[in-house]
Amino acid sequence: MKYIVVTGGVVSGIGKGITTASIGRLLRARGVEVTAIKIDPYINVDAGTMNPFQHGEVFVTEDGAETDLDLGHYERFMDVTLSGAHNITTGKIYSRVIEKERRGDYLGETVQVIPHVTDEIKEWIRTVGRTSGADVVLVEIGGTVGDIEGMPFYEAVRQLQLEEGRENVMFVHTTYVPYLRAAQELKTKPTQHSVKELRSLGIQPDAIVCRSEKPLDPGVVRKISLYTNVPKRAVVDAHDVEIVYEVPLLFEEQGFGDYICERLGIDAGEPDHSEWEEFVEAVREAEDEVTIAVVGKYVDLPDAYISIREAFTHAGAALGVRVDVRWVDSEALEAGEDSAWEEVREADGILVPGGFGKRGTEGKVMAIRYARENDVPFLGICLGFQLAVVEYARNVLGWEDAHSTEFDPETKHPVIDLLPEQRGVDRKGGTMRLGAEPVLFEEGSLLRELYGREVALERHRHRYEVNPEFLPELEEGGLRFSGRSPDGRMEALELDDHPYFVGTQFHPEFKSRPNDPSPPFIGLVSAAAGKRPS
Ligand code: GLN
To answer: Does the model's pTM come out above 0.85?
Structure first.
């Protein structure tokens, strides 16, 4: 087993996740089996209890874990399917260690960060590697070197190299190289300092990935190489690119893939990036442009909806359409702000994503009504699906007070209600209906046609669902539930007399890949572009 540990310096949020995912792609292109682990040094057990403003979207895995959004990058770039075990947090490690201590596993010992916590971290990494069947395990440590919370993890990976051998563990350090406009130059000092910090922990990087606004010039490369003790060919230029999917190709051009294989003694063939290049080309060359208004609550932070954004890129590439996503604040719609309504009116399609909490829900209902009444292509996901049912109940069936009991527990028309199995659940962590479950599409429905099959496994994350009590009346009133779970719960809806009006209780965005775009997104983008999906 080989390990590539990716660390970060200078600032967080510079794209360590994309760097890790891109290294994964370099190896996959050489036929090497690879998997990835994200370490988040926060104390939360998982990302599920955090607001998207904290770390962006909560990515849901097939097995129903609520994880960091970097797992989404790994799945999309590496074309692998990961489980919750691929996201390690301080919370998970400590829970395990404390559980063992209570059980008496350490009887007689003082339980300490070194060796007990670090052993647990190494054990976790090795187990994931073993069970995944991969040849190479990528391990990305979140945050930046020097963060107090991260210390046990840096120590654990240092020990990992000692135990597994230098030839089996390499370190890639991702840094930020700022461009100073006044001096018109790229500055290497922050990189020098962060490498110094890393070395003080006993870790010598084997490669430095330099994030910057501009390409690195040879002088900068020379300097970084000299000060960090990393060969020049391993100082990798990762300047800003227009399309994130270009990053693996940018790495390949610089010989980074070959360097990694040499360093780890991986005997791999020539890389084949042809499919990937075709995809990047399709994204770049897309000619028709459509505008989609995404009406949500976390619009100031597009990372909150990152899988949705990527799903549009994948669908757009497949259809030859450039999707221009406009983020519209649902509260602004609610308040009747002209500029927000202008965005909605100008859009070729509308998407209402998932969400929690009452704030902004009325604005979403307004956007859904606008889409329904004006024949504007619409996709509602999770909360967006639930609110489409609410909107229909209110404005078509005339049940003015219809709502989800999440927002109005007293309504006489609780068309969306807490799942029966959720009653009595008072713990918040990991207790929703989570993960992939089968959805059955009705014969003759649009979704059945888009999916091209009767059953699809799609991922879920919710507590409320369509209330079966109101089902007969909703259906008689013209709402078509075209997707159901095997036990008869409502999973998807569509309207027949509309160009494209679809809602899904599940989250199709999590399974969208460059080579396998998500069918409901294909449907939305093609309807918005006035094309037939092919
Ligand atoms: N808040 C809703 C529920 O819990 C929708 C969740 C979501 O959109 N992910 O059912």
So the answer is: yes
